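Margin note from the TA: students keep mixing up input and output lines. Inputs are the sequences; the output is the structure of the whole complex. Example:
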Amino acid sequence: MPKDARSRLTELLENEWGRLGVEGWNAGWIDLPSRLGAKIASLIGADPDEVIVCDSTTVDFFKLVSAALRMSGRKVVVTDDATFPSNGYVLQGCVERSALRVVTSADGISNPESAVIDSLDETVALLTLNHATFKSGWLYGIDILTKAAHERGALVLWDLCHSVGVVPIDLKRAGADLAVGCTYKYLNGGPGAPAFMYVRRDLQERMTSPIQGWFGQANAFSFEMPYAPAPGIRRFMAGTPPILSMAAIEAGLDLTLEAGLTAIRSKSIALTEFAIRLWEDRLAPLGITLNSPRDPEKRGGHVSFGHPDAFAIDRALIEHMRVVPDFRTPDNIRYGFGPLYNTFDDVYEGVERMRRVVAEGTFGGIDPGDRKVT
Ligand SMILES: Cc1ncc(COP(=O)(O)O)c(C=O)c1O
């Protein structure tokens, strides 16, 4: 938790909500989604009026897939088998089964651009991929894939959840159409912090949200019927923004902007390279695999290690070693290194403590049980 998140929330509770009550909306809350969106825009190479903070990634993803299909007139959507399941579920819910094309990875780690490009043709309405995949951290080339999709008349929707705040992104250079992302990973926005969405400016007036809520209406407080979409990206908002969660985002965002993505990416690569070097020496001899790309250019900010008893090892690390990875089925122990706060000592300890857990077999007695969050 960024230190400033606490002071920002205290200020909000005591001086805004506590003193102003609902008048807080006129004292700045109403503009928070756009103000934060403008800050995120500068992390992803977008203009300030092309990004807005609202809802969750899943909901924003649904809104943009539906809007893209409605605009395109074509039916086919291409994705891959590394995409985050929530996105896959949304696609299964709003794309005809025969129109959903899923590119599969040969090794579960990588998914070369050529395989995706081969799946594109003139029937494709939308290509949607996670920029950095959630298990292996494989990093797609936004420029090359956006260009390939455009050559076939398709739109592209990027999910930036695992790359925003750790990998430099330039949506403008790529000519990218649409994107979504969360604020609670590398941006340190806090549990359940709202997501953001990007819509390229020239598409905004041509697309409409399938969730026609009052915050996306041209003048919410006119209470007029029928619905008329707000100009610009605000039309993609739905209902009242969760101001408490939204306000907590700003501290992490400001830190990220202050550090700058060039420095963050360079430390991130150094951290993950160090982890992989340590894996080679200490973990590979124990049968632990590297489930992430070796090439730093094709890797995001996390590294996954593989073991058949990954879940028990993950729990042993959390419960006995004060190391907190994620377990991702079937065999991934995922280390998300935060360049803003993780040190090289942390990386060393994270790998060395895993070595001890596996070499000494201390995960043997651990029953991962029925934990709801892994
Ligand atoms: C790549 C990716 N997409 C989508 C989601 C879903 O995000 P949300 O819970 O904000 O809907 C996640 C969540 O971790 C994710 O990692």
